[in-house]
Design brief:
Elements lengths: L1 H14 L7 H10 L4 H22 L4 E2 L2 E2 L10 H5 L15 H25 L22 H7 L2 H4 L3 E4 L6 E5 L5 E6 L3 E6 L4 E7 L4 E6 L5 E6 L2 E6 L4 E9 L1 E7 L4 E6 L3 E6 L4 E7 L7 E5 L4 E5 L4 E5 L8 E4 L5 E6 L5 E6 L3 E6 L4 E7 L6 E4 L5 E5 L2 E5 L12 E4 L4 E6 L5 E6 L2 E6 L18 H13 L19 H15 L3 H4 L14 H45 L2 H6 L1
Antiparallel strand pairs: 1-2, 3-30, 4-5, 5-6, 6-7, 8-9, 9-10, 10-11, 12-13, 13-14, 14-15, 16-17, 17-18, 18-19, 20-21, 21-22, 22-23, 24-25, 25-26, 26-27, 28-29, 29-30
Organism: Acipenser oxyrinchus oxyrinchus
Subunit structure: Part of the small subunit (SSU) processome, composed of more than 70 proteins and the RNA chaperone small nucleolar RNA (snoRNA) U3. Interacts with DDX21, NCL, NOP2 and EBNA1BP2.
Keywords: Nucleus, Phosphoprotein, Repeat, WD repeat
Length: 583
């Protein structure tokens, strides 16, 4: 029995889990084994430290190598950065407001505060302020060579400086897409090539076997236009000819208006023509009556085309008028180059009188005039206002030329051959130079916008490009809306409106505005609820029934009266005169 009982007892102990020892049980067991009194006291003194550390951990503070984190929680956001994104004052909750309203307002304010903090934190990652090149100890930046800049920058930026040796078919005209990803080259002797210049992947290359005057990308990187010796041709990105537009002959310069889908061309015969590439038809053809047109640019803010003429004048054109919107006398000699900034505020011109002038387009007055060693043959302005000019084989870049007087260029570079075309790459610190020996990609710190948009996304996929193209076609602006001041389109012609109102008053004999005054109706809360709608329907139904009942009762009363009258007449006819008199 004892053996069986022991087995049972042993089985019971084996089947159960061993209970964990408590802190004081372990201390008592240690004391029973002969531990000294001092050891027990020392361990007991360690307990509050462990408890304190556990409490700190519960509060969410991190312990780094046994120490308390001196900066717990998220990093604070400076008030100066928060003020940049604030859109109004905080809502003040009245003490008499209802609890539900207070709760809703408090939650809204918490969301707004969280959005402000997140926007201020992410603002640190957006390099909105572009950096410029600064020389060491007063060193002139225009003397710094491109090789030195390429060695000093990182590998990705250094790879953007390169040269393409194409001396056989030069000089070259160039054009970048709006997102700055693709490059189009057009040689004077017929060589045309399109490539992704960042990855150095060639898309198409061909020789049209005749002279090329200008090349231009259309609305996307899938189509481009080439102004050849006789006619205008449209090609796709694989070099396949899509159209030959014979109405546009002897074209020298081209500009594409992206929001209107218009290709503006200037010809040697003095005609300015507009082609709608979305439907493939000619919008207008204007005879400028100023001879050969080989100087052309566009104002990106209002889509007005600027033309330079051999008489020293600059004219501004719209496809809606046969006469120029503005005609300015800018130089004593012929105009050689024109550039307009992104905002459409300033225009820079260069002429045969070896002068470069800056004009304010808002007032059409000159702001500054600079004397160049030779007249600039080509000019372009970047997204941040840097100006690049070409004189022979020398390219000079100027900074703040529109706002402050400039004494020396910001950067300079000598090309291998005579420069024929120059353009800043959008959203990049790169200046493309087309010259007689090929193409050069020049590093210029600071000209491009730091952040691109969804409208010009250099990393978009094929699906995103197709969706963007459909949306752009739906949002296409009509050519009739191209004016010198687009802000005037939404304004009301007060004089015409008053004249029309006066004529209407004279025709009617009274002022219709006095009888058309708006009288607001009293609207109750819950008026459009289901119960209210049913009650109104029932009320209308009862009113209709009441009207029918009233009409039926009137008809019944009328019939009763007629019946009584007939009975009375019949009864009077049967009685004698004496009976009637007695009654």
């Amino acid at each position: 029995m004892a053996a069986d009982g022991g087995a049972v007892e042993q089985g019971v102990h084996v089947g159960k889990k061993k209970a964990p020892k408590r802190y004081w049980d372990s201390q008592a067991e240690a004391g029973s084994k002969g531990a000294g009194e001092g050891q027990v006291t020392e361990r007991a003194n360690q307990r509050p430290e462990k408890t304190r550390r556990k409490k700190i951990e519960r509060r969410g503070k991190k312990l780094i190598s046994g120490k308390v984190d001196p900066f717990p929680g998220p990093a604070p956001v400076p008030k100066e950065r928060r003020q940049k994104f604030e859109r109004g004052q905080k809502n003040e909750v009245h003490s008499l407001s209802k609890g539900r309203l207070k709760d809703r307002l408090s939650k809204t304010e918490e969301k707004i505060d969280l959005a402000l903090n997140q926007a201020a934190r992410s603002d640190l990652l957006l390099a909105e302020e572009a950096g410029f090149l600064v020389g060491d100890e007063g060193e002139d930046t225009c003397t710094i060579a491109q090789d030195d800049i390429a060695e000093a920058v990182d590998i990705t930026s250094g790879a953007k400086y390169f040269n393409l040796s194409l001396s056989q078919f030069g000089p070259y005209r160039i054009d970048y897409t709006r997102n700055g990803r693709h490059l189009l080259l057009g040689g004077r002797l017929g060589h045309v090539a399109s490539l992704d210049w960042q990855s150095k992947q060639l898309q198409s290359e061909m020789n049209v076997m005749e002279s090329v005057n200008d090349v231009r990308w259309l609305h996307s990187e899938n189509m481009f236009a080439v102004a050849q010796r006789k006619w205008l041709y449209i090609y796709d990105n694989q070099g396949v000819e899509l159209h030959c537009v014979k109405k546009f002959n002897d074209v020298l310069r081209m500009e594409f208006l992206p929001y209107h889908f218009l290709l503006a061309t200037a010809s040697s015969t003095g005609f300015l023509q507009y082609l709608d590439v979305s439907v493939g038809r000619e919008v207008s053809a204007i005879c400028t009556k100023n001879g050969r047109l080989d100087v052309m640019t566009q104002n990106q803010s209002n889509a007005v085309v600027h033309l330079g003429h051999p008489t020293g004048t600059v004219t501004l054109w719209s496809p809606n008028q046969k006469e120029p919107l503005v005609k300015m006398l800018c130089h004593r000699g012929g105009v050689r180059a024109i550039a307009v900034d992104k905002t459409g505020t300033y225009m820079v011109t260069s002429g045969l009188d070896r002068k470069m002038k800056v004009f304010d387009i808002r007032s059409f007055k000159p702001l500054a005039s600079y004397l160049l060693p030779a007249g600039a043959t080509s000019m372009t302005m970047s997204q941040r206002g840097l100006l690049a000019t070409c004189c022979g084989d020398t390219v000079q870049v100027y900074k703040d030329v529109c706002s402050t007087p400039v004494s020396r260029p910001y950067m300079a570079h000598r090309a291998p051959g005579r420069v024929w075309g120059v353009q800043f790459c959008p959203y990049e610190d790169v200046l493309g130079i087309g010259h007689g020996d090929g193409f050069t990609s020049m590093l210029v710190p600071g000209p491009g916008e730091a952040n691109s948009t969804l409208d010009s996304n250099p990393f978009r996929s094929v699906k995103q490009r197709q969706e963007w193209e459909v949306k752009a076609l739906l949002d296409k602006i009509q050519p009739e809306l191209i004016t010198l001041q687009p802000s005037k389109l939404g304004e009301l012609d007060t004089a015409t409106y008053q004249q029309r109102h006066k004529e209407r008053v004279e025709r009617l004999g009274f002022d219709p505005r006095e009888k058309e005054k708006f009288e607001p109706k009293l609207k109750m809360k819950g008026r459009s609820s289901t119960g209210s709608v049913q009650r109104r329907k029932k009320k209308i139904k009862n009113e209709d029934q009441r009207e029918l009942i009233k009409q039926s009762l009137e008809m019944k009363d009328r019939a009763d009266k007629e019946r009584k009258k007939e009975e009375k007449m019949t009864s009077l006819g049967q009685r004698s005169a004496l009976e009637r008199f007695q009654k």
